[in-house]
Each structure stands twice: as C-alpha cells, then as structure tokens.
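Help needed: design a sequence for this.
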C-alpha cells in the first residue's frame, strides 16, 4: 500500500513537468487531486487496512497529498521559460512595469525658469527669511507702525514671546518679498543685483489670490541706476517669460518704499486681452508686479548712502505670472494648490 502511494506520487510529478499551460494544470489537478481522482481512489482503500497498517500508511498518504498540492501551487506561481507560461501570470521576458514617475510642481518649474532668466543678466538668487520681524517687512520700508498703507498687505502676525520687546521685533509671515531689500543692503556688498524668490502669506483667497503664494523681488543698487534700467528689466523679463509678442503696461502707483512707483500689468491670456466675461482679469489686464526707484529712507535703513547710490526694486507674483503663460488658460489661481493630479500631470 505504501508502495502504491509512492508510485502514484512519482507518476503525478512526472506528469506535472509536462503540463505546459493553465488548462493542462487544471486537468492534472482533477486527475490526481480531484474528489474522484487517483489519490482519492487510493485513499479509499485505506479503509480496508488493519489498524496497525493504517497507522503506518495513513501519514504517508497525507504527506503525498500535501506534496502534490504544493507542487502544483509552485508550478502555478513560478516563472515560465518565456515560450510557454504554465498557468502563471509572470513571464521574465516581458518588459517591466514602469512605476509612475512624478515631476516638479508647475510653480517650482516657474521658479527655476525665473531664476535662470535673471541669472542671464547677472541677478543672483538670494534667500531671506519667510518669517521675519515687523522691521524688515514694514518699518525699514518706510512704513512705520500703524501706517495705513500697511492695510494692503493683509498680514498674518505670529505669537512670538521672545520678540515682544518692541513693535519692530514682532514677527510676521512675510506678506511680500520686500523684507529682503534692507536685509540685502545690510550685507554691505555693492553693487547689488539680486532676485529673492520666496513664499509670501496674505489673508486672501479668490480667483487671483491664495493665502500662500510666491513672489520674486528684484533689486539693483549701484551708482547711476535709473528708471530706464527698471523699464529695460521689465521688458526683458516679460519677453523671456511670455514671448516677444506679449503686451504689457506700466501704471503709475504708490508704494511707501519706492518713488516713483508703478504697477506692471500684462495682457490677460485667458481672454486674450478682451476682458469679455473673464473671471480672472480686469478689462483684459492682469496685475503682475509693483516696482519703482528705491526710496532714500530704505537705502539709509540698509546703511547705504542715497547720495552716492540709487536703486530700483520690484516684486512679481510667481503664480500669477505662471498663469499668464501663453496658452495655459488657467483662470483660477487656487487650482495650482488643489493637488489634483488630473491637472498637475499636464505640466
Ligand atoms: N512688495 C510690493 C507688493 O507686494 C511690490 C513691490 C516690490 C513694490 C518692490 C515696489 C518695490 O505689492
């Protein structure tokens, strides 16, 4: 009886080696392991044995069953040889499955492009704090405490037990990158050609505002810097970033830290400058930046002699600039930060 089981095992294993596909494996399973299969038939005969013999052969019969069950499992899940795949789903000769590959966020891509555009005209990237004191964010920029001009910046203030001593030591989440102006002047290395690109925070949210956004601040300090240089840099940036055909305009404006001051608008790409039913722009123009000639008080605050040096400064919104790239047609700034892959994967 023991011998019969061993014979059956051998026969089954040999048969298994020539089973080449899923159908063959299934047929093998029915033939040997099925309810009325060869093994079951043999097991039925165990009942005719004496108690002594049952004790001896029983475990062998079970071991054979286990071994055959395992053998077919292994065969089902093991790699094929490429020409035939015996019932398994794995073929080593097939090309691999590529894991999904991400890419940089469109805003990060824009920041890199901006950094590159400015480095070509000698403006190097500077880094300044994104949580800074009231002094650098406002006071040193010619905006004393309680000055109404501050209202425009919708600022978040930070609880800062270690900075309570004076008003100017209070901390804010930088509402603009202009906090880098006096910080850069203080380094004392002239001339300065910097671009400070960083996060800004304001308590605002609508089609053209998000509470966390980015600006890039350009500052040029040297002897004989004029408004003409500023206009030239605006034109250079707009043509590099949007292409040579994009129309833009400078609008007289007022900032406490520049004089004279302007705002820069570009022709809206969402409505092609028509302004018709455009949910984003005003009359076909979108405001991207503010800028002007640095106020003498700001130069002084940074320890630079305004009689010897002149300077310009400007600040652009990164997200808004990015939205105005030709053909993108992004008409709501908030979509950039919704983390919707269907949107992000397009860039
Ligand atoms: N900081 C200003 C703003 O956020 C822009 C600006 C920068 C204006 C530099 C003048 C000079 O609106």
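Sure. Designed sequence:
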């Amino acid at each position: 009886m023991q011998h019969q089981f061993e014979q059956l095992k051998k026969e089954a294993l040999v048969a298994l080696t020539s089973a080449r596909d899923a159908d063959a494996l299934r047929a093998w399973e029915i033939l040997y392991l099925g309810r009325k299969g060869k093994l079951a038939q043999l097991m039925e005969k165990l009942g005719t044995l004496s108690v002594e013999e049952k004790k001896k052969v029983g475990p062998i019969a079970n071991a054979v069953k286990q071994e055959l069950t395992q053998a077919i499992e292994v065969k089902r899940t093991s790699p094929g040889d490429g020409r035939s795949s015996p019932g398994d789903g794995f073929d080593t000769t097939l090309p691999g499955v590529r894991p999904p590959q991400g890419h940089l966020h469109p805003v990060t891509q824009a920041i890199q492009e901006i950094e590159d555009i400015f480095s070509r005209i000698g403006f190097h990237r500077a880094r300044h704090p994104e949580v800074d004191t009231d002094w650098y964010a406002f006071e040193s920029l010619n905006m004393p405490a309680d000055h109404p001009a501050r209202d425009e910046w919708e600022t978040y203030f930070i609880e800062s037990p270690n900075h309570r001593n004076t008003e100017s030591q209070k901390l804010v989440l930088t509402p603009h990158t202009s906090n880098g102006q006096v910080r850069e002047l203080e380094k004392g290395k002239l001339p300065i050609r910097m671009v400070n690109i960083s996060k800004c925070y304001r308590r605002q949210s609508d089609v053209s505002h998000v509470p966390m956004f980015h600006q890039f601040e350009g500052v040029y300090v040297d002897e004989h810097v004029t408004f003409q240089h500023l206009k030239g840099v605006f034109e250079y940036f707009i043509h590099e970033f949007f292409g040579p055909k994009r129309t833009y305009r400078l609008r007289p404006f007022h900032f406490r830290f520049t004089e004279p001051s302007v705002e820069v608008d570009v022709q809206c790409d969402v409505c092609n400058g028509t302004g018709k039913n455009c949910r984003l722009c005003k009359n076909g123009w979108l405001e991207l930046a503010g800028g002007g000639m640095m106020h003498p008080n700001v130069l002084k605050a940074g320890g630079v002699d305004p009689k010897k040096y002149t300077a310009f400064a400007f600040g652009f919104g990164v997200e808004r600039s990015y939205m105005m790239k030709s053909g993108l047609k992004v008409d709501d700034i908030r979509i950039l930060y919704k983390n919707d892959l269907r949107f992000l994967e397009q860039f």
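The chain has two domains: 2-90, 106-128+175-344.
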